[in-house]
What does this fold into?
Amino acid sequence: MKILAIETSCDETGLAIVEATGNLKSPKFKILKNLVASQIKIHQPFGGVVPNLAKREHQKNLPILFKKILDSRFKIRDASLIAVTVGPGLEPALWAGITFAEELSKKNKIPLVGVNHLEGHLYSFLLPQKTANSKSPSFTKVSEGKQILDIFPAIALIVSGGHTILLLVKDLKTWRRLGETRDDAVGEAFDKVARLLELPYPGGPEIEKLAQIGNPKSIDFPRPMIHDKNFDFSFSGLKTSVLYYLKNQNLLNPRPKTLVANIAASFQQAATEVLVKKTLKAANAFGAKSVLLSGGVAANKKLRKDLKHEALKMGMEFFVADQKYNTDNAVMIAAAGYMSHLRKKKYPLKANGNLEI
Ligand code: KG4
Ligand code: ZN
It folds into this structure.
C-alpha cells in the first residue's frame, strides 16, 4: 500500500510517500518521496524551538509541501492510508499536522492512523539504505515463501532532543523499556552545551563539526551513571561540568577556537562513552542479537561508529537508518503508520505531548 505521512512534532515539517508491503515479521518499505521543510532559521534567534511559531510555520508549509508532493505519478487517491504523528512533541505543532491530516482523510475518504513519533524513530532501521553506514536487516527464509527478521532480541537506543531511551525489543510489536534519562535528553545536552559555546541552534551538528578539530582526551568531563547497575542516564551534570569548566577558565572574548573545539570534542566523547557503554551492557544482560540506533543524535558519526564497532566486536549486528532519516522526517512516520496498521494499534487522533513508547 502507498502511505502518505505527515510529521509536525517539532521544528521540521515533513511529508512523505512510502510504499509498504509485507507482514509484521517481514515489512518492507520503498521511499517514493520525502520532503522536509526545516524551520531552523526561524527558531535560531531564540536559541530553541518556539511552539506557537512552529505551529504557524507548519500550517504555512503543509499545503505547500502537499502541492509539491502530488504529480503525474502520485495522486492523493493513490494513497491507501494517511499517517500522522500524534505525539510526543510540542502540542500546538502536533495539532497543525493532525488537523491537516484529518481534512485530507475526510475529503478523500482515506483511512487515517495516528503515529507515535518514537515508534517512527525505532522503526527507522527498517528503511532501505543508500549509504554504507550500516546495512538493512536481512530476512531469513524459514520455509517456502516465509521470511522473518532474525535479529531479536534487540536492544534499541533512541536518542533525540527530547528522549534518551533504552528498549529491549522482542519483536516488531513487543518491547520493554529498560531505562531512560532522569533529566536532560542527550540531544538537549548537545544543544545546551552548544549554547554555552555560543554555537547556533541546533547544537548537535555544530558540536560534531567542531569536535573534529578538537582533542577528545583534553578535558576529563564526567561520565554520569556509566557504572550504575541500572539502564538509566543523566546528562544535566555533564552539561553543568562544561559550564563550570568555562567559568574556571575565566575566558575572554573571543574564546580561542582550539579551546572551544577541545571542549566540544571532550563533551562528545563523554556523552558517547556513556551511551555506548550502557547500551552494550543492556545488550549483554539480555543476550541481544542486535543493536538498533535511532533518533536525531543517531546522525552523529562518532556515536554511529563507536556503537557499531562495539556491537560488532561482541558478535552482534548493528542497524541504523541513513543519516537523513535519523533527524525528524515523515518517511519514518509512514513506516510506523504501516506497523500501527498491521498491529491494529490505534492512537487517539489527539495531540499528546507526553506520549510514551
Ligand atoms: O529526533 P530529532 O530530529 O527531534 C526530536 O525528536 O527531538 O532530534 C533532534 C536532536 C537535537 O537535539 C539535535 O541537536 C540532535 O538531535 N542532533 C545531533 C546531531 N544531529 C542532530 N546531535 C549530535 N550530533 C549530530 N550530528
Ligand atoms: Zn524525533
Observations:
- The chain has a mean pLDDT of 94.
- The first helix runs from residue 40 to 43.
